[in-house]
Amino acid sequence: MPDSTNQTWFITGASSGFGEALADHVLEKGGRVAATFRKPEQAEAFTRKAEGRTLGLVCDVTDEATVKTAIADAIAKFSQLDVIVNNAGYGSMGSIEEVPAEEVQRQFDVNVFGALHVLRAVLPQLRKQRSGHVLNITSIGGLRTFPGVGIYNASKFALEAVGESLAQQVGPLGIKVTNIEPSGFRTKWAGESATIANTKIDDYQPTVGENIRGIEGYSGRQPGDPVRAAHAMYEVVQMENPPLHLPLGKAAVKGAREKFATLSKELEQYAEMGAAADFPAGE
Length: 283
What we know:
Order of helices and strands: EHEHEHEEHEHEEHHEH
Mean pLDDT: 93
Distance between the termini: 51 Å
Shape: globular
CATH architecture: 3-Layer(aba) Sandwich
CATH superfamily: NAD(P)-binding Rossmann-like Domain
Strand order of the largest sheet: 3-2-1-4-6-7-9
Low-confidence stretches: none
Structural class: alpha/beta
């Protein structure tokens, strides 16, 4: 991996939130950034932002052809890609029973298949280099679930698994992987970027309805600072032995601890029952 002032980053979804904050921080540190946007004018403005060190690319991560083109253009411009950030994503809210099938598909198209499109396009270059670092922006919702965001949880659990398995595959090749797991940050996730299915079933109002109302109510007042998150992500990339998982935000750290404490307790309580399902030794 080149020194921090000579790294080239590829960041998806850089028009706002984590993507925008991270791109700005990398540029402040002297690095180079290829970033994807949905609108041509956004991409053009980014290319002009720091002549020679920035490349704005029009890309829809759900369209594998545009992803391949974006990666190829970034490599043609900068010759090497050092950090890949799967940041593009959004949140789908609603009860599992009521979120329509087409919205479930769209949630996975963006949050899971979009990241896979990026990985398939970029891994040949990283393997050739025998270096690189992949950051998957998952969520604390990729480690634990909440009522009303079950489909979103499912997409982020899937991305967590992709990152964990990928780390085992590419670690021997000199490529690193970190799953970034934020809690509530002041991005557009809970506001204009969210898709919310109207919960009409009364049985779900105390669970799904209450949680969604809470999420909507604190949009813009979340404790997480995207700029500080960007600094943490940048710092992780500079580590010789970075973590595979990085919960970001106090709520994420607390949530991860609670999840694994609960899981460990349950495992021990029913370990004997689970282990007894094997054939006895020697059979």
